[in-house]
Amino acid sequence: MHHYHSLEEVSLHNSWLTVGVFDGVHRGHQEITKLLTTGAYASGVPAVVLTFDPHPANVLGRAEIGLLTLPDERAELLASMNVDVVITERFTRELSAVTAFDFMSRLKRHLGLKHLLIGYDFALGKGREGNASRLTEIGRELGYSVEVVPPLSNQSGVISSTEIRKLVSVGNVSEAAHLMGHPYSLRGTVIRGDGRGKKIGVPTANIDYPREKIVPTKSIYAGWAYVDDEKHMTAISIGVNPTFTPDKQIPSVEAYILDFDEDIYGKELKIEFVARLRDELKFDSVDALVEQIWKDVEETRMILKS
Known about the structure:
Blueprint: E1 2-4, E2 16-19, H1 27-43, E3 47-53, H2 56-60, H3 71-80, E4 85-90, H4 93-96, H5 100-111, E5 115-119, H6 132-142, E6 145-149, E7 153-154, E8 157-158, H7 161-169, H8 173-180, E9 184-191, H9 196-199, E10 205-208, E11 219-227, E12 230-239, E13 252-257, E14 268-279, H10 286-305
Parallel strand pairs: 1-4, 2-3, 2-5, 3-4, 5-6
Antiparallel strand pairs: 7-8, 9-10, 9-14, 10-13, 11-12, 11-14, 12-13
């Protein structure tokens, strides 16, 4: 898979394409991607996904949206779904003012676009003029066809990045994983913390996580940690550690990796959230805190083994 950071870097012929933010690359996105790759491979042409960064809502001031996936994470997930090319186009106010015809002409020029797959509510171009009917009309002139993919729903309604963001933000990581089709994750460099975990016999890895991403609510979670591509059970704490630092403002993300004793300072650590165990609590003593931590560890082990 090739990941480009500008359409200007790309020159393809007869490609099949889908366009969107694809934040989270959830099960609805995966339905589109499956149709894209199956059709492209049958035709012997490249399967291409064009996505955007930053999120358009953050650029246009409609909202301040925390992300489920950063561009490289999106590309990694799409590569696992057999996409040939991912293009992360920089989204700007200038790009938002480009007409649908001009934008599609640019795609035709750089990708040799033959077939476009879009979601049921997709629109692009100035004033979101490029809806399904307009893109089909433009396609007749430029020489590409359009396929509209219906939404994927569950008992709660249409699966969407917006709904998944809400679930992650309140700590319902298990339901978020169900809608995404994969666990929610954070990754970052392991940095030095205050060292309290080591002093009480529970050394944790502090993660310098990207501030653009959504951080689940302050709680204790069961999950997985990936160190040098090796997967380990881990109990994850997100919070301000009220037993020791109740006045702390920005939550820390700390991972206690089970059955693990290596120095990983400076390494990248990826953690996946599987289940929320409990709220972050303030304890009356260090002994009470340690007792609860070991209960969390055993619950984590039980959940992950099952």
